[in-house]
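Tip: read the tokens left to right.
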């Protein structure tokens, strides 16, 4: 079996956080939630203290709100700039905006071939397969992403999932519950099959 299509530079970057949450489980979700809600809790606590200071505290409320927003959104802004800078550097070094990628599947494993590079993972080493932002992520140490739009229709995607799931270990199959739902047709229908990539935006900062 082969799945072929164009992948955009950095298209699978969003899968890294999803892999962490999926593998870390409940503890990972708690730590991620704490990192996101921490600044908000600090901000609310500060507002409560200022509100009890009377006139002196009222003059500090707006600066405190601004400070809280900065510490809440600064990490996200830095992460955005880092991704843009990385993408610009990759393009400057000869990377292509889009690359033709081939996913070749056989009884032994999945081989990914694109732009002169090649990766291979054995089914026995795959810990799970899950859905992340319209991409199937095959986790085998690293996460290998197969966009759903590469499939012409739901039947082709179901055939791909059937091929993969039937070759996983029982433990990996149990973890791949969302892939099982889609294969069985029990998930919400998706309408993005066969879509081509939109024109890429400028990589400049």
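Filled-in amino acids:
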């Amino acid at each position: 079996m082969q799945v072929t299509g164009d992948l955009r530079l950095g298209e699978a970057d969003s899968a890294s956080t999803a892999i962490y949450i999926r593998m870390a489980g409940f503890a990972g979700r708690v730590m991620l939630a704490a990192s996101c809600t921490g600044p908000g809790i600090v901000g609310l606590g500060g507002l409560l203290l200022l509100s009890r200071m009377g006139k002196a505290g009222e003059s500090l409320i707006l600066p405190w709100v601004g400070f809280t927003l900065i510490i809440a959104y600064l990490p996200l802004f830095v992460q955005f700039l880092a991704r843009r800078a990385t993408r610009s550097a990759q393009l400057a070094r000869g990377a292509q905006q889009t690359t033709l990628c081939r996913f070749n599947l056989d009884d032994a494993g999945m081989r990914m071939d694109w732009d002169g590079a090649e990766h291979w993972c054995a089914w026995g080493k795959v810990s799970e397969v899950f859905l992340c932002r319209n991409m199937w992520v095959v986790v085998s140490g690293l996460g290998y992403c197969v966009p759903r739009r590469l499939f012409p229709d739901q039947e082709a995607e179901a055939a791909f999932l059937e091929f993969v799931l039937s070759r996983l270990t029982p433990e990996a199959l149990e973890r791949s519950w969302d892939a099982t739902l889609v294969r069985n047709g029990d998930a919400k229908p998706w309408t993005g099959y066969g879509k081509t990539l939109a024109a890429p935006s400028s990589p400049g900062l």
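The first strand starts at residue 2 and ends at 8. The chain is about 50% helix and 20% strand.
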